[in-house]
Design goal:
Number of strands: 5
Strand content: 25-35%
Distance between the termini: 37 Å
Largest sheet: 3 strands, antiparallel
Structural class: alpha+beta
Number of helices: 2
Helix content: 25-40%
């Protein structure tokens, strides 16, 4: 187990995030798939989130991430969804 350090803390926050499309329609293909992947990477880079593992299927997205304590996981998910959908 490897701990991460901040300026005044030591933390080990790991989350498994899963997003699925409505009715599990297989719409994450081609250019849409690449765009969703790039957006997730961009948002994680902006928020200092490390993607430990990630899988993008045609109907859902899996991400295993390490999140710093200054960021609420709900804010990360909200930010990704805002970038993808609007």
């Amino acid at each position: 187990m490897q701990y991460n350090t901040g300026s005044h803390c030591v933390f080990y926050h790991r989350y498994h995030l899963v997003w699925s499309t409505k009715y599990r329609f297989k719409v994450l293909t081609g250019r849409v798939r690449l765009r969703v992947r790039d957006i997730c990477r961009q948002v994680c880079r902006e928020k200092d989130v490390d993607i430990l593992r990630g899988v993008l299927s045609s109907d859902h997205v899996h991400m295993f991430v390490s999140v710093p304590p200054k960021l609420a996981i709900s804010d990360l998910v909200r930010r990704c969804c805002q970038k993808v959908f609007g």
